[in-house]
Specification:
CATH superfamily of one domain: lambda repressor-like DNA-binding domains
CATH class of one domain: Mainly Alpha
Number of helices: 5
Number of strands: 0
Largest sheet: none
Shape: elongated
Structural class: mainly alpha
Strand content: under 5%
CATH architecture of one domain: Orthogonal Bundle
Helix content: 40-55%
Length: 99
Amino acid sequence: MKYNLKTPKEAAVLLSERAKELRLSKNWKRSTLSKRSGVSISSLCRFEQTAQISLDNLLKIMSTLGRIDEIDMLLLPPAIQSIDDLDSKEPKKRKRGTI
């Protein structure tokens, strides 16, 4: 069993700090990132100060910072852990939940 050691808020704050560090490593002002990404300066400020941002704006920022490919690693199916996992049939793709 895997345990979450971070709250969603802690993960968001860490993500916003890393994005700010990337911006600064490029020696960009917020206005530079805003112009290049199409994300308003007020949204960038809110993201860097409170870690709140829309998914659309986050993706624009990541693309502008050259890190959009990292999104491909999110929400992948779990890795195979044992031989038994290989023997089990591939599960049907669900279109809706039952609960």
